[in-house]
C-alpha cells in the first residue's frame, strides 16, 4: 500500500511540476492535458485517475503551495515574521506564485484560492471599533495589496532581499491596514488578559 501511495504522490508531483513549467513557458491557457502528460512522462489516461481537468490540477498545485506556506505561520507571529516566511517560500517556489499571479483575477481557480486566503485572514482579524471601513473591504485590500507586492517582486527578478520585502509588506500594507481598519484577534485577547 505504501508503494502505491508513493507512486500516486510521485505522479501528482510530476504533473504539478509539468503544470508550472509549461505555464511559465507558454502560458496556462495554451496548455493541454496531452502536453501535461507528455511533459510529466505519464500516460494520458493516468492523468484522469488523479485529476478531473486541467483546472483541477491547477487548483491542486495552488492549494498545495498555499497549505504548505500557511502551515508554517503561527498566530503569535508578527506581520514581519509572517512576511519573512511567505517571501522565503516564494523564493524557494517562484513557479507556483508566477502561475497564480499570471492568471486573470476572475479565473474560477484564482477566485477559490483568493477566497481561501481571505478566509484564513478573517479568522485572525476583527474590525477596529472606531473604523468606518468594513472588515471585508479591509481584508480584500490587504490580500490584493500583498499579492500585487509579491507579483511586483517576482516580475522584477526578486531584486530586493527577503528581509526588505518583509519589512515593506509589514509596514506599508499590513500595519497601515491595521491602523485604520482591523486588528489582530490575538492582540485584543492579550489586551483583555492584561486588564
Description:
This protein is mainly alpha-helical. It folds into 2 domains: 51 residues, Arc Repressor Mutant, subunit A, CATH 1.10.10.60; 142 residues, Tetracycline Repressor, domain 2, CATH 1.10.357. It has 10 helices and 2 strands. Strands 1-2 form a two-stranded antiparallel ribbon. Helix 1 crosses helix 6 and helix 5 crosses helix 9.
Strand order of the largest sheet: 1-2
CATH class of the largest domain: Mainly Alpha
Strand content: under 5%
What count of domains describes the coordinates?
2
Question: Which second-level CATH architecture of the largest domain applies?
Answer: Orthogonal Bundle
Mean pLDDT: 86
Q: Structural class per helix/strand content?
A: mainly alpha
Q: What about the largest sheet?
A: 2 strands, antiparallel
Q: For the terminal residues, how far apart are their CA atoms?
A: 55 Å
**Count of DSSP H/I helices:** 10
Rg value? 19 Å
Strand segment count: 2
Order of helices and strands: HHHHHHHEHHEH
